[in-house]
Amino acid sequence: MSAATTRSRTPDRLCAEAVDLAREAAEEAAYPGVVGEHVSAVSEGDRVVTHFFECKEPGYRGWRWAVTVARASRAKFVTLSETVLLPGTDALLAPEWVPWSERLRPGDMGPGDLLPTEADDLRLEPGFTGEDVPPPNSALSEEMAERVAVSGELADLVEAEDVEVTPGPPAALPLRGSIVSVAEELGMRRARVLSRYGLHVAADRWEESFGAKTPMAQAAPASCVSCGFLVPLAGSLKQAFGVCANEFGPADGHVVSLSYGCGGHSEAAVMPKPPVPSRPVIDEFQVDPMPLRPDADSGSVSVNAGSGSEDLGHS
């Protein structure tokens, strides 16, 4: 039979009666006035009892002072074992700890703060810095190695056959230098650059903040694609985004979607002109037949022209 089954769950009488000793220990750990009423006494084992007291300290709602007392075998004196503040079933607890990388939100960084990125960050991918590539004129570069090998073969040939060699034009510059210049022009000469995943994540975030579905864009007179305050971006982002340069606009200095819009549109105050009807055209070069015949009843002459008629009276 194990020792756990032999322990008595009934609190020891002397330990259970040591309420005053437990209260003094709790008040010494805290200070008088914050230790409340005695709640319960729980047996922790043979001659070991824990007394629970209410905690009246502000900010610790539902917490309890737990004081454990014990008594040696055949001893009549109860001694103090431990004093600790423990949460109860309805205690006010702090939220579960979250790593800073998951807790950080946009706008949390302040002056002097550093935000390191992980080595396997999906938003980034390796760039081309050229640091691990030897210079084009270095003896370790592939171009120089090839030129040295060719020069060595040519020198052996000249020495063996006693041939006079006319110096020719200088060799072309290595192509590796052009790769570096192209990489620098494209903005690739960095340790890491934005990956396709990072580009899509940023585009979704910008579209959600300053996109066509925002209330401001829904009420705008026109979209940013026709606004004079829009500063286009470079690269593939220029097809969908730009930077607002209107100091009075709600998105000044922010990346906005081309379908976004606001009341600060550069052409918002230009009212369209009302349509002007065209002047009637009178054809003066065509003759309309107008037959004249006397009207027997009224003695007037009837003039028929097309679908209408007019009576000319006599004086």
UniProtKB/TrEMBL annotation:
<protein>
    <submittedName>
        <fullName>DUF3027 domain-containing protein</fullName>
    </submittedName>
</protein>
<feature type="region of interest" description="Disordered">
    <location>
        <begin position="288"/>
        <end position="315"/>
    </location>
</feature>
<feature type="compositionally biased region" description="Low complexity">
    <location>
        <begin position="298"/>
        <end position="309"/>
    </location>
</feature>
<dbReference type="Pfam" id="PF11228">
    <property type="entry name" value="DUF3027"/>
</dbReference>
<dbReference type="InterPro" id="IPR021391">
    <property type="entry name" value="DUF3027"/>
</dbReference>
